[in-house]
Write a structure and sequence with these properties.
Elements lengths: L4 H9 L5 E2 L2 E2 L2 H15 L3 H9 L2 H13 L6 E5 L5 H10 L4 E6 L2 H14 L5 E5 L12 E7 L8 H11 E12 L5 H23 L2 H13 L3 H10 L3 E8 L4 E7 L4
Parallel strand pairs: 3-4, 3-6, 4-5, 6-7
Antiparallel strand pairs: 1-2, 7-9, 8-9
Helix pairs in contact: 8-9
The structure holds S-adenosylmethionine.
């Protein structure tokens, strides 16, 4: 395949854009294959989250909401919002008047989320939009809060998504990313590697009959930028006061930043 200078530049800036887990692919193929992963797991996604994390993903998500401190007068966008876990927590914390947009590239994931919201009787002030985090169909300066939970790792061009987040936030608006990250202690990292490479794909295979999607999960975590690098990329995308907080020994981190009034 012919590689242009622009592609080389993009690759340098986004080294993860051409990796689907451990496989080297084109950026377009990465986006398609990620779509395929979530098509395949959508119906079992919530159950699998509980099984693989022993329910801890609920605590991580609650911790994110504690950082966000949702307020009823704010407008929220939850990107890569999938089956609605973050949106529902925002609704619980902010009350029925908060306006929440859930955006995700995968219609099947959103359908599961929309059905959950119907079950909860939460139809008003919710919007479910199928879209790529890299090109959001929202005007500049639209939202007070942008959240992305376990989503950024799957986006093909992370920096493009960060710049979109910056664009759609109002001045003073806040960005939050909850994502798997990198265990800092080398001994714990070895245990974590064992669990991720040997156990997670097996649970995935047993429950969803789809080992490959869970192998992708494990590999994509390893390819995701380390905590300090992601913080730097937030700053490069325009965010002020960029910082992060590790949870569970760095298995997961919350990054945040502010779109300054300038
Ligand atoms: N945020 C939810 C949560 O925390 O449970 C769902 C996370 S799930 C691991 C990742 C989600 O990212 C999937 O719903 C997937 O469709 C979505 N996704 C992947 N690439 C995306 C992209 N480029 N733009 C928007 N959503 C994307």
């Amino acid at each position: 395949m012919k590689t242009t200078r622009n592609q080389n530049h993009a690759q340098k800036q986004n080294p993860e854009s051409e990796w689907f887990g451990r496989e080297k692919v084109s950026a377009d193929e990465k986006t398609d294959r990620v779509l395929g992963v979530f098509d395949s797991v959508a119906n079992k996604y919530d159950l699998m989250n509980d099984l693989m994390s022993g329910g801890i993903h609920r605590l991580w998500k609650n911790a994110l909401i504690k950082e966000v401190k949702p307020h009823p007068a704010q407008k929220f966008v939850d990107v890569a919002g999938g089956t609605g876990d973050i949106a529902f927590r925002i609704r619980e914390a902010a009350g029925l008047d908060a306006q929440i947009t859930v955006a995700d590239i995968n219609e099947n994931m959103l359908n599961v989320g929309r059905n959950r919201s119907i079950d909860k009787g939460w139809l008003d002030n919710f919007e479910w939009i199928t879209t790529n985090a890299e090109s959001l169909p929202f005007s500049d300066n639209s939202f007070d809060v942008y959240t992305i939970s376990f989503g950024l790792r799957n986006v093909t061009h992370i920096d493009t998504a960060l710049k979109e987040a910056f664009r759609v936030l109002k001045p003073g608006g806040r960005f939050f990313c909850l994502e798997f990250s990198h265990v800092t202690d080398p001994i714990l990292a070895r245990f974590y590697d064992f669990y991720s490479y040997k156990i997670i794909p097996k649970i995935g295979e047993f429950i969803t009959k789809d080992r490959e999607s869970y192998q992708y999960l494990v590999d994509s975590i390893r390819k995701f930028p380390k905590q300090d690098e992601l913080r730097k990329r937030l700053i490069d995308s325009g965010f002020a006061q960029a910082k992060y907080k590790n949870m569970t020994f760095g298995t997961v981190a919350i990054h945040e930043g502010i779109k300054d009034f300038a």
